[in-house]
Amino acid sequence: MSLKKARMAQSIFASSLLLWGAAAATLTFTVPSSPPSNSSKQLSAAPVGVSLEFFTFPAYMDNVTATTTCLENLKDLTGTWPPLRIGGTTQDRATYDPSLTQAVSYTVASATDAPTSLTYGPSFISLAASYGGEIILGLNRRLNNISNTISAAELAQSQATRLYAIELGNEPNFYTSSDPIAGGASWTAAADYASEVQWQDEVCGNLSVTDRISAGVFFGTSPMSIAGLTAVEGTANNYVKTYCSHNYPQSASTANLATLMGHSSIKSQISGFPSEITAAANLGKPHIFGETNSATQGGGGISPTFGAALWILDYVMQTVILGTQALYFHQGTIGNCQYCWWGRYDMGAPYYGAYFATMALAGADYIAPLDSQTTAYAAYAIYSSESPVKVLLYNSDYYTTGTRSSQTFVLSGLSASTVTAKRLTAPYATSRVDQGSNPTVAGQTFANGTCVIQGTQTVETATVSSAKATFTVSASEALLVYL
Ligand SMILES: *[C@@H]1O[C@H](CO)[C@@H](O)[C@H](O)[C@H]1NC(C)=O
Ligand SMILES: *[C@@H]1O[C@H](CO)[C@@H](O)[C@H](O)[C@H]1NC(C)=O
Ligand SMILES: *[C@@H]1O[C@H](CO)[C@@H](O)[C@H](O)[C@H]1NC(C)=O
Ligand SMILES: *[C@@H]1O[C@H](CO)[C@@H](O)[C@H](O)[C@H]1NC(C)=O
Ligand SMILES: *[C@@H]1O[C@H](CO)[C@@H](O)[C@H](O)[C@H]1NC(C)=O
């Protein structure tokens, strides 16, 4: 019944937490023996994916040592390479040049700038094709050169056996009347939808394919939405593989870490997306968050923190329960990217959340919320086939200083005599790797520069008594219980 930690020091620490008495009332959840009615639909093999900004994709693959290992660590958990999207703002600044020998060519004033114009060559496409998992390739629509986009799409179609989808433009809700695609007219939702459908027809017509386009690619849900686009797709829906949303909960000007990571505030933040997911499902297509991360405009200081890792964890669980198939967390300019999971030199704390989310969903078929999503405390039951195999507990109370409170969770309906657990923690919600405050996942860290997991794994054990076991989760911490 009591939580027996693998290490004596931790066990003393845990009991002293109880003595401090700061914890809220114990929360008890019964784990349903089969997926309850508010379970997710069938989960995909690897819901946690990565998006690499278009111009810097070759540098990530060829020149940042951690990239492959960080992706491979996730693959080692699920057996499937995380899905990869290559795209972003610079896909709509890029022109394909079949004679270019390098993967990509551009000039920038400073190494931390993104180029305003670039070209890319056939080796860009072959590098994308060499990735071990599914890829989404983001191509240009903004510059209105459809024959150029078709040339690149044809090469991708012929070379990339794991090509999942092609995007035709990035965040067209931000296009303006002065972009070439607008032809001088005002760029409205109706104009974008008509343009998307026409490009789907012509690109897929030339490629002689169906089910190939990641459509929409809207930032948020207004003024353009998947609900609006699907209403005018008509038979072009045959060319669509998936409908795609982008979501950044915060910007530098609104940055608030407690809100970002708060369990019930995450529910509110994503409340615009169920209707988008339903609109896609009504046309028989999956929905993805093809680009997402914590905060735009450099992240306002909240993005590199452990709290952002906890946000990733809970956001992934809540969005897959809504029915999204996968989330592609964006990695931007190398050396100028607050929310990035890794860089040339240091790891980013958010990677720990992505890793833990992938641990939770590895091998899972369904996940169900056990709580009402109206408090700071989350519990999820995770099913393989029809049986519960894991429970994820999350205490989203924001901890930065002073005495760390904790929440006691009692799980009932357990059939084993003991269960094990792995903990995701850090000194504070505000902890940053580059400031020496490393998170740990089951006691382990990821090495700066290489992303190799290091240290000794700590697995906790809890005794089950009368089908119940008790767990303590500190503020700004999560625990994955293996049933
Ligand atoms: C590779 O990294 C080095 C710094 O380690 C940098 O000077 C160089 O420009 C990078 N090359 C590419 C292609 O990004
Ligand atoms: C469009 O792309 C083609 C090559 O695919 C190129 O020859 C042409 O110059 C491009 N047009 C513009 C306006 O950039
Ligand atoms: C191929 O693309 C061109 C635009 O470059 C378009 O005019 C033509 O209709 C497309 N062909 C098919 C079969 O869709
Ligand atoms: C899901 O269903 C459980 C009962 O199985 C209920 O206790 C919980 O509040 C529900 N949560 C949500 C978010 O629907
Ligand atoms: C990573 O490097 C930072 C310094 O930039 C250091 O403070 C931190 O402890 C290192 N993390 C690990 C896991 O070695």
From TrEMBL:
Superkingdom to which the source organism belongs: Eukaryota
UniProt keywords, alphabetically: Signal
Domain named Beta-glucuronidase C-terminal: residues: 379-480
Leader sequence residues: 1-24
Pfam family, one: Glyco_hydro_79C
Protein name: Beta-glucuronidase C-terminal domain-containing protein
